[in-house]
Amino acid sequence: MSGGKLLETLSGTRSPTPPIWLMRQAGRYLPEYRAIRATTSSFLEFCYTPEKAVEVTLQPIRRFGFDAAIIFSDILVIPDALGQKVWFETGEGPKLEPLTDPAQFGKLSRGRLPEFLAPVYRAISEARKALPRETALLGFAGAPFTLACYMIEGSGSRDFAKVKQWAYSHPESFSVLIDLLVDAIVDHLVNQIEAGADAVQLFDSHAGVLPEEQVFSWSLEPMVRIAHGVRARHPKVPIIAFPRAVGPAALMYRRPDAFSALSLDTGLGAHWAAKELQPHICVQGNLDPIMLVAGGAALEREATRILDKLGHGPFIFNLGHGVVPQTPPEHVAQLVEIVRNWKPSTE
Amino acid sequence: MSGGKLLETLSGTRSPTPPIWLMRQAGRYLPEYRAIRATTSSFLEFCYTPEKAVEVTLQPIRRFGFDAAIIFSDILVIPDALGQKVWFETGEGPKLEPLTDPAQFGKLSRGRLPEFLAPVYRAISEARKALPRETALLGFAGAPFTLACYMIEGSGSRDFAKVKQWAYSHPESFSVLIDLLVDAIVDHLVNQIEAGADAVQLFDSHAGVLPEEQVFSWSLEPMVRIAHGVRARHPKVPIIAFPRAVGPAALMYRRPDAFSALSLDTGLGAHWAAKELQPHICVQGNLDPIMLVAGGAALEREATRILDKLGHGPFIFNLGHGVVPQTPPEHVAQLVEIVRNWKPSTE
Question: Looking at CA atoms only, how far is residue B224 from chain A in angstroms?
Fold first, then answer.
């Protein structure tokens, strides 16, 4: 079996030190990423060019020897594949032609997804072949609520007023969109697994903007349905759920029937997580990406604090959010060394 | 004693229905606010004109009969009073000439604060005289970490990289700034109380961007020091703490020695808060402001859900964040009616 320490941890086997990978570990903080990214102007075209996606997926593995690679792609490939217009403007983030009426849902077609996203699956097959056996390869997708945020707001948002107003005032039609996304996401994750992904992560980056009852309806419940859909086809492939910034509502995601691990954002205290979450499920996280910018003694102290709190149970070291562009690569190397050299205290 | 139901609730007396006021209840969603706001171009000049500040403070009380008014002002009057350059650009939010070096702290002078902010205190005296006896008047201030965010970033921020990097890598010099702000905030709150404020609220709007250990050092600990400083002078004036988006770290703020109530953001589930926070301290919150945009059955259902969870203990009805400009005023009237007509279930 490929996938080494990460898959062992996800299946319940303990290692002396936890596996480590970082969200957005392939990205602008690496000069070798910027060099290859400069060869294609469109971000989505870059994602859909397998040799380039494979190359940037491998770059951080070569440099730092992480325990997992995550395929270089974007959560917005799903709305793109469904037929919504998606583009990226430099320095402004993603833009979509926003959905404003349920009548527009009819134009979104799941049928073309496998062919449209074939370059992603090809990149996964090739990355899996190129990676060391012991390095796990992760596939991923955005969760339905987060995708619906982009699809209805048409971009990032400060208050998510349009998508929330739709969900609150017209839950029936909002459900239609969420259900369509659940099916598309199951397809996309299954295809990634069949192409060679060893595990998958579901990013619900915007779940934290909802009150608890709505977190249940629009984040947790659809994510559980996706997990069950994927497990029906591939019962042994681990699924990591990342419901970002949901606070104490993270308690609802302790669902080993659906998820193999919960990824924690920076705001979810390691102390609280060790007590409330980890006895029920493997956790992943949650160093502040800005600690990785700071480096030095501050990084060493905070990474060690997290290791001391969470390293004694099932745990994958990661950040609480993605690596930021101004991160010095040598601080990433420092972090990997801290994690690999950490010694669990004798309990 | 002035202050009616709100002060009774804060001092532990129960009413059949909870008091209600809303963060940013004076603001752009009201046509009468927009009319008077249009008479002054500079936002800070508007805040420093007592007759205008008083008028907009009273507007939502006349319309909706809230149990509390909050003086119309801004958290950035403190950096402004300390001598940092602060201005507001239409549609862009606040801008400050950012602090980039501890050497600049020496230019910040607490001495001129009482005179500089005299218009705020005059507005409070006049608003208190104009308000019905049973309506509490709240003063407020931004908490040190949130003010430091603006003072170092120079504006709002996506990742708060500059302020966090400073706090993480140079905690000694960051402490100097936080300590200076603690003293200035105590002065400002004491002055507001002596001008006629019945209670005060401390807004730590950005506390949620910190990991738990840093939440303790830079949000909780300075807020407790401020509360103790104010209590030393005015032991009976209630202090409401609003550490926004801190998730389970809200547990640390159960400090009745310092705070009379905790204000909850929308993400902090009412169910969790009823179990973990309310047995220890009065809570305030936490309807999603977008529910107030939605109105109708969605608003009724969600407001009632919150009342059913929290209305049986010490509770002040509020939002989880400020009223947004696109809120229809009639939905605010609907909410006040829902809260006033709510019947506690017989337990």
Answer: 20
